Amino acid sequence: MSVRELVVLGTASQVPTRHRNHNGYLLRWDGQGLLFDPGEGTQRQMLRAGVAAHDLNRICVTHFHGDHSLGLAGVIQRINLDRVPHPVTAHYPASGQHFFDRLRYSTAYRETVRLVERPVATDGELERSAAYVLEAHRLSHPVESYGYRLVEPDARRMLPELLAERGIAGPDVGRLQRAGELHGVTLDEVSEMRRGQRFAFVMDTRLCDGVHALADGADMLVIESTFLDEDVQLATDHGHLTAGQAAAVAVRAGVRHLVLTHFSQRYTDPGEFERQAREAGFTGELTVARDLMRVPVPKRR
After folding, report:
1. What mean pLDDT do residues 255-262 have?
2. Catalytic residue among 37, 67, 219, 229
């Protein structure tokens, strides 16, 4: 059975707390696993969350601040220690190649797995497969940073009641799908287009065009909300968003499920992030992320 869910490994910004590990997010997308921003302690959080190295197919790093990347060394070495049987692809800002190299080879270990490096240097498509297209867009932060967007191709949904009305069943359904017409019945008459799902991952950034491009039409938007709205000037100065700003982005983009994360240690009441997001007008499904929680991607429309 296919599974599409977000496994939250850590939610802290810059400084971990007793209850929040540094960043780390695994997106399970059917048989694929995409690990985003493995901060310090990610390998242990994976163990606690029941995530194995074998589950990882792709690693996506938004930028090279420590709370988003210091876990790379341990994760890469664990992939090799466990002899993951498939290649693992890594995306990260091309300007941080020297940081990636240092983390990849920070200590001695035996390489047993093919780690494919695919650095990001510009906006646009990174990878295309039958399952999804992975895109990146530049964000606004003191160091070069990119957000990621996964887009499932649109597909055609067969409508059983219309097929039954026209007497098409069993192997004839497949024949109609392949040929586009069968016994005078066209594919358009018994089916409809199903919009592919969209997932967006937006970390450290001010408001910018890239944020809106990533969030546009997302079924699930995972977005930083480091500060509360009363500290908006701090957010702007340090290249971050507030809870209200993140929610306003989601409203404008038509997001179905908003996941707020990357919280400053100065705040102790998670409910304030939800309150401010609702005050900003977001009425969809809303999750204030906690370490080790699992958040299902919304079902297709």
Report:
1. 98
2. 67
Six token digits for residue 14 = 């810059």
pLDDT > 70? residue 167: yes
The string of pLDDT tens digits covering residues 11-65 is 999 999 999 999 999 999 999 999 999 999 999 999 999 999 999 999 999 999 9
- The residue with tokens 């209850």 is 19
Distance CA 68, CA 79 (A): 18
List alpha helices for the chain, DSSP H. Answer: 42-49, 66-69, 72-81, 97-104, 160-165, 171-179, 209-215, 232-238, 243-253, 271-279
* 61, 91 Cβ separation under 8 angstroms: yes
**Residue 172 catalytic?**
no
**Residue 249 to residue 252: CA distance in whole angstroms:** 5
Pull the structure tokens for residue 163. 């097929």
Closest of 280, 299, 277 to residue 288, by C-alpha: 277
Q: How confident is the model at residue 93 (pLDDT cuts 50, 70, 90)?
A: very high
For tokens 């392949």, the residue is: 178
For residue 173 the two structure tokens come to 């359904």
Query: What are the tokens at 143?
Result: 């160091």
| Tens-place pLDDT, residues 172-227 | 999 999 999 999 988 899 888 899 999 999 999 999 999 999 999 999 999 999 99
CA distance 91 to 97: 10
- Burial environment of residue 18 by CB neighbours within 10 A (0 to 12, 13 to 18, 19 or more): exposed
The Cα–Cα gap between 38 and 169 comes to 48
